[in-house]
Design brief:
Layout lengths: L1 H9 L5 E3 L15 H18 L2 E3 L1 H12 L18 H15 L2
Parallel strand pairs: 1-2
Length: 104
Amino acid sequence: MKEIIGKIKESGARVVLCTPTVIGEKKAGANKLDSKLDEYAEISRSVAKDTGSQLCDLRKAFADHLDKNNADNKESGILTTDRVHLNDAGNKLVAATILATIDK
C-alpha cells in the first residue's frame, strides 16, 4: 500500500485513506467483526501517518454517532439497512465526514 501511495503522490495527486465503517451497529465492540474492523482501521491510520497522507476516519465517526444515537443498542436501522448497507443517514454521515476531511 505504501508503494502505491508513493506513486500516487509522485504524480501530484493527493491521497486520502479511509477507515472502514461498520458491520453491525451495536456499541462498544459488541458486533462479531468489530475487532477485525478495528484492526483494519488501525492499519489505515498507521499507513496514513507513515506516508503523510490524509486520513478520513469513518470508523471513529460511525462509532461516535452510534454511541450517541443507538440508545437501544440495535444491530441495524440507525446508519444501515441490514448491518452492512448504508441507509440515508449512513450515506449522509459518510459524505459529511469525507467533506470535512478534504476541506482541511
